[in-house]
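Notes from hallway chat w/ T.B., transcribed later so I don't forget. T.B. wanted the structure written out for a chain they're using in a teaching module, and asked if we could keep both sequence and structure tokens in one place. Agreed to drop them here.
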Amino acid sequence: MTADRTMLLIGGTDTHIERAAALGLRIVLFQHPEKINSFQTGLVDALLVLDYTEWDTVRPLAEAAREVWGFDTVVSLTEGGLDTAARLNDLFGFDGTSYEVSRRLRDKWTMRRHLAAQGSRLTVTSERVADRASLHAFGDRVGYPFIVKPTDTTAGFGLVRVDGPEELPAVWERLEALRGTRTDRVTTLFTVTEFLMEAYADGPEFSVEAFSFAGRHVVVAVTEKLVDETHFAELGHALPARIPPGDRTEIVDAATEFLTVVGLTDGPSHTEVRLGSRGPVVIESHNRVGGDYIGELVRAAYGIDLAALGVGWPVRMVDELPDDPQPVAASCVRFVVRDPGTVTEVKGVDEVAARPEVLTARVSVRPGDTVRPLRDNWDRLGFVAVRAADTDAAVRLCERLATDDIRIEITP
């Protein structure tokens, strides 16, 4: 396919760039120095390497790039680039998600305030952390447990569950240590600036993978989270979620209602919902494809490529999805976790990856590396993703491969 269209892509993975190139788009890429690689440079038509989260740097370079390459749209499918792409859409008068809507999704305090102002049933009591006394006051007002988290990071970084007032001195010390720092694992794109307190929402958590077409929200999948309640690291995802039809309807209705309330009209979304004693509560949402390999799980189970839709829909080079797509299989990703210590040996990864039902298998540690206590998603050591006939089979296989067949020896 060829197209006389040019896209400015802010950040992005190899997959995003590959899908845009496959559509025949000319690609002008603004990429962060931490993320660029030779695969990407071989596909794009123009490349500027910069910290694309710095608006004062991005704006003049984007204006100059438009003069030279005349791009038709600005797109980002990666967390750190969403606000920048939205600001550029506003600047150039392009269709697409506005900065106002992007901030409602990127900034958790802005999202909570907007939902409260709209009288939404999908939110919980929340307040910004002002000082140490505000933690005590919030606990007295809403009870325990409650959640404290940065307003503008991802992957569970900095999340704390406060189970009682005796924990507040240690929580405040942790917040003070994090404030003003950048996320320190995998990426430094996010700076911790302020914290949000939220009433705890009970019940199992799901994510809703959707794509919006000019205000029509199509839920592709409800994804089941595999978790351990003792920490905030997600251990895996499986889809379609194993839930009763009535629960699925409630979750889908909550996610689509939320997207309408926040004003998202176009593009992918990944919305995390808890369904508990008070009904559905939106934990957070993102105007991008879900991370943790969820996009590939959707592709394996539904045959729908959300990344291709994400780059193709802004230039109307892909067709809209029908309502309520049906799965043709099931899929699961399970993350490799181990007890803390020093890695002495890694075996079995290549053998697992070679199995026909395995979508991918990766491990990020090698002998000599230190394994830290599991606190959030960035402490995981790798993952295995599989496709199977049903979700039960996918979960069983994935857990066995990740825990037994991939062997990581560790000295405590």
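Follow-up for T.B.: Residues 29 and 198 are 37 Å apart (CA to CA). Might be a good example for the class.
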